[in-house]
Amino acid sequence: MRKTIYILFAILFLYSIGMEAKPEEEREYKADSIMSLVIEYAAKYRKLLVSSEAEMYIKGRTQILEKNVLIRFAHHLFPVDQRVQDMVFEMVCRSKFEAPNAFFHDFKAINGSHIPNRQKQQEILNFLNLNIYASTAFDEEILMPTAKNAFRYYNFRLMDMETSPQGTKIYRIRFMPHHLSQKLITGYLYITDGSWTIARIELSGRYYFSDFLLTMTYGQDPTRFNLPATADLSLTYRMLGNAVSSTYHSKYAYTSVEWAWDDTMAGRRKDSELNLSRHYGHSSDSVVIQYDSIYWKQMRDLPLSTEEQALYAQSTDVKRHTPDSVASISTRHNPYLAFTELITNPISRDFKNTYIRYSGILNPSQVGYSRNNGLSFLQRLRIQKHYKNETRLSFAPELGIVSKRKEVFFKAEGLWEYWPERLASLRLLIGNGNQSYSFGMMQEINNQLADSSFKAEDLNLQYFRHYYIDISNRMDLFNGFRLTAGVTYNRRNPVTRRFDIGVGDEVKEIINSDYHDFTSTVGISYTPRYYYRMNGRRKTYIYSHYPTLSVEFAKAYPHIWNSEGDYGRIEADVQQSISLGLLQRLNYHVSAGLYLSKTSSYFTDFRYFTRRNFPDTWDDQIGGVFNLLGREWFYASDQYAQIHLMYQSPFILLHVLEKEASKYVFSERLYFSQLWTPALPSYTEVGYGIGNHIFNIALFAGFSRLTYQSIGVKFAFEIF
Fold it and tell me: Distance of CA 367 to CAs 10, 162, 509, Å?
């Protein structure tokens, strides 16, 4: 009897659990059903808007909550003026949108207790450039819950339902990421029943150095359903022991809207139009400081708070200066800040039509570390003279030090850009390159020592210093197709001359002689369907969905300025960045080269297979090169073939191994590189790297014929 009672009790208990769980299961199921419809309709809605123009009113307030002496460096990381503890400001901006996902903002009026500079103006625009139905937001920085594969990254839950004033059901759905990442956000979607449009979104996440909370409401009128009506943004920066809070309120007043109600009109810009000049921009050059209180009262949809009115009343800092001049006032009145700017930050000066930029004495972005080089440090100066027809003349010297190799590198470039529409330029380049020894020289020495007890490796062959002068001209013959032609004069002399070795005079002459080469070079590069932007007459390439193919041929001519070189060289290269879906990319770089018609001694000097001594920006992604390969192997063969692969995703290892750390990592990368040369038939490098907006670091391992050789780290700063 007792056993029967226990069984009945267990059945009732399990039944009660099932009864309690059922509504939750139904709620989860209904949320997924609703979001499936939202995602399906989003694919149509994101292409429906052709263009719009609106007048935006923006009210902002920034408060320094915590600060220490390091706040003097904080302007490198986020928009802040450390002189001002609490500031309020208002702006009026004319905003234009043109599909696909292209914005232009033009500030027309500004006022406040302190006038924000351009960096502060841009801060709010980074968040207002939001197409709610797009798969990604903020220039592909964040994956949206409306993306077609959103269920892979987000959980959805139906929280409740309300009825709009028009009698329509509005579902409130909470979306949460499966794991922590700067690429994912948390928040609520308010979905309109039947049309499956988004009436409101509340989202929070991390963007660069800030935690943000953004709320946007959308028009309920059918002619405004995917246009924001108001936006409220809260940003909190915490860095180096400092905390800064910024809040913004924006309202939109639309002056024109154009829709595409059928597929033939959707996305008015056809694929054949490669010029993206009118599809992005931000201007504040003609901004006016507007003091008229009646003007601002008419622009506001919400009155100023008591605190905001007090800030306006107490302010003595509103002067008739342009926003950028306010920043210069800050530096002029704070000598210590000016000193920190000098040693850590790039310094730019613009005098009439001359622009000068200096990298900064201790700019961290010019410092790098790798296993082969140790610490490397670079100094850069650029001087540009602009002319009325938008041509320009520039001079750019560089000086760098590589600690482990105890070498100093210099380069001075003069560039005359005489036809900006064609990216046509004439360049003069003088500098020194990596120290090396000649591949042909090794062959000659081995021939001379064939009957000797000496071997080439017994000589402990010294490297040769390399100096060069290069003159070249390049021009786009048509869009995406570039032709380059030039001549180069190379001089190489031994680091140390040695005559006290017991080998024949022929060998002594080989290792102690100076070598000169005079070469001509012709190269072509072609990228199909290369999108570009024009700024006046000046052209800038943006992107292409196709690979870039390059071929270069060089010929050395003897008897010109003591030149002994008599050979040919040919190289080919293919590279591309392929999107594998949202937030995932595969970059590949394949190249090969060889020397031809070799009738003299020569130094191998390939263009696409070479060492890099100084840190590049993270745009280079620490890829496309061999990071651990000893420098002797770059010059040991007269032919090569290489392939570099890099897979990039925010979700590779950290979200599984270290969930807390993953929210501070912007991207993870896997590397694979393979090399073939006659001297080194199989060399492989594999690597793993992580990066954010402060630093980037990668770990590499090298293998020769699958036998482990070495391991090393490459590190670079990114914030300055």
Answer: 68, 57, 40
**Which tens digit of pLDDT belongs to each residue from 658-678?**
666 666 677 888 999 999 998
Q: C-alpha 370: how far from its chain's center?
A: 21
Residue 88 CB-density burial (10 A; 0-12 exposed, 13-18 middle, 19+ buried): buried
Give the separation between CA 448 and CA 511, rounded to whole angstroms: 12
Q: Which residues contact 381 (CB under 8 A, 6 or more apart)?
A: 356, 357, 358, 359, 396, 397, 398
Residue 646 has pLDDT above 60, yes or no: yes
Span 389-400, pLDDT tens digits: 889 999 999 999
Torsion angles phi and psi, residue 326, rounded to 5: -65, -40
Tokens of 225: 């359903």
Q: How many CB atoms are located within 10 Å of the residue 306 CB? A: 7
Nearest to 37 by CA among 178, 165, 193: 193
**Domain spans in the chain, listed from the N-terminal domain onward:** 23-328, 442-581, 609-720
DSSP characters for 196-245? --EEEEEEEEEETTEEEEEEEEE--STTSTTSEEEEEEEEEEEETTEEEE
Q: Is 362 helix (H, G, I), strand (E, B) or coil?
A: coil
User: How sure is the predictor about 19, in pLDDT bands with cuts at 50, 70 and 90?
Assistant: very low
With contact defined as beta carbons under 8 Å apart, do 127 and 307 qualify?
A: no
Q: Which residue would you say has higher pLDDT here, 109 or 652? A: 109
Q: Is 215 exposed, middle or buried (0-12, 13-18, 19+ CB in 10 A)?
A: middle
Sign of CA dihedral 594, 596, 602, 605: negative
Chain centre distance of CA 578: 16
- The tokens describing 717, both together, are 């700063």
Triad 47, 53, 56: Cα angle to 5°: 120
| 3-class state of residue 136 by DSSP | strand
Residue 320 and residue 313 in contact, taking contact as beta carbons nearer than 8 Å: no
Cβ count within 10 A of residue 160: 10
C-alpha angle 150/194/187, rounded to 5°?
Answer: 40
Which three-class secondary structure state does DSSP give residue 25? helix
How far is it, in rounded angstroms, from Cα 157 to Cα 171? 10
Query: Lowest-confidence range among 189-203, 294-308, 315-329, 505-519?
Result: 315-329
Determine the 3-state secondary structure of 544 from DSSP: coil
From CA 555, how far away is CA 563, in angstroms rounded?
12
* Element housing 655 (H / E): helix 654-657
- By CB atoms closer than 10 A (0-12, 13-18, 19+), residue 49 is buried
pLDDT digits over 191-225, tens only?
Answer: 999 889 999 999 999 877 788 999 999 887 777 77
At 254, list the tokens.
């639309």
- Sequence-ordered list of residues with C-beta below 8 angstroms from that of 157, at least 6 positions apart, any chain: 27, 28, 31, 173, 174, 176
pLDDT grade, residue 136 (50/70/90)?
Answer: confident
